[in-house]
Structures are given as C-alpha cells and as structure tokens.
Design goal:
hydrolase activity, single chain, two-stranded antiparallel ribbon, Nucleoside Triphosphate Pyrophosphohydrolase, 5-stranded mixed sheet, alpha/beta, 162 residues, NUDIX_hydrolase_dom, 4 helices, 7 strands, EC 3.6.-.-, magnesium
C-alpha cells in the first residue's frame, strides 16, 4: 500500500522534537570544577542553559556564560553529549552538549547574574558529582574522561535516578 508523500512543511511538522541544552566545564589551576547555584532550584549545576530556537549549542554555551558569569569566551572541544529520554515533567527527550571552557584563573573575574544565580564555587571533581542532581551527575566523570582521552563521550539512555 502506497502512502502519499507529505509536502515538506507537513512532513517537518510530523517529526518528533527534542529539547536541547548546553553547559560549559571550567576548571581552575588546582583542577577543580566550577559549579553554580541557581536561586530557583535546590541543586547546583554547570554554567549553561536551554538552547533557543535557531541557536546552535555552542552559541548557547557562549551566550549563557556571558549572561550567567559575565565572561566573554570561545568554547573549546565538545566533551559530552548526553541524551535523556522523556521523564517526569519533561514530555520530550533532552540532548545536552557539554563544552570545554578551559581554565579560569581568577574567580573574582566572574560576575554572577543575580536574577538566576546565588553562588559560584570551585569544587573537587568528586564533590561536583555529589552536588549535581542524579539526572546530570554522570556528565562530570564523562567530561573528565573526554578531556583526558581527547575524545567526545556519548551518554545514551536513562541516567541514574534517585
């Protein structure tokens, strides 16, 4: 049985959609990870946010770092791509892109966006894992491995819950 072909606008409208976000990994001279504490949720995170319509993930990362930290950067390598299926309040899959931001030598250069963030702190890699929520914590060891091995890590599937 032949199905009629859809016109391009109808065909594109029929495709599934995915949410996307981008974050940046910064470390300091002691190889500690920069985390930020949003004022609108209880857990810490890496600097970053949701990709806007028509925006590339690396552009989102640059924009979010400028907004949240007051830093003008060029992101480095793509360290981690984390794909998470729909869950909880989120009805669609999420693709997160984690980029290397390099080293920040002076936390005093950071200007926190007061509307969204209440704190920024460098912490040990293990402490960063402990402070992140279960659905994002696996990105930290993956980013460390990606930096060490010089290759992007892909994290498919369902993350640890709890």
């Amino acid at each position: 049985m032949n199905q009629p072909h859809l016109d391009p606008p109808e065909w594109y409208a029929s495709l599934p959609t995915v949410y996307a976000s981008a974050v940046v990994l910064f470390t300091d001279g002691s190889d500690r990870v920069l985390l930020v504490k949003p004022n609108y949720r209880p857990h810490w995170s890496l600097p970053g946010g949701v990709v806007e319509d028509g925006e590339a993930p690396h552009e989102c990362a640059v924009r979010e770092v400028a907004e949240e930290l007051g830093l003008s950067i060029e992101v480095g390598d793509l360290l981690v791509v984390d794909w998470v299926p729909p869950g909880g309040d989120r009805p669609r899959s999420m693709a997160n892109y984690l980029f290397d931001g390099g080293e920040i030598s002076d936390l005093g250069a950071v200007r926190l966006q007061a509307e969204e963030l209440e704190q920024a702190e460098f912490v040990a890699w293990e402490d960063a894992v402990a402070r992140l929520p279960a659905n994002t914590r696996r990105r930290i060891p993956a980013a460390r491995a990606a930096r060490r091995d010089g290759r992007t890590v892909y994290l498919p599937g369902t993350p640890e819950i709890g």
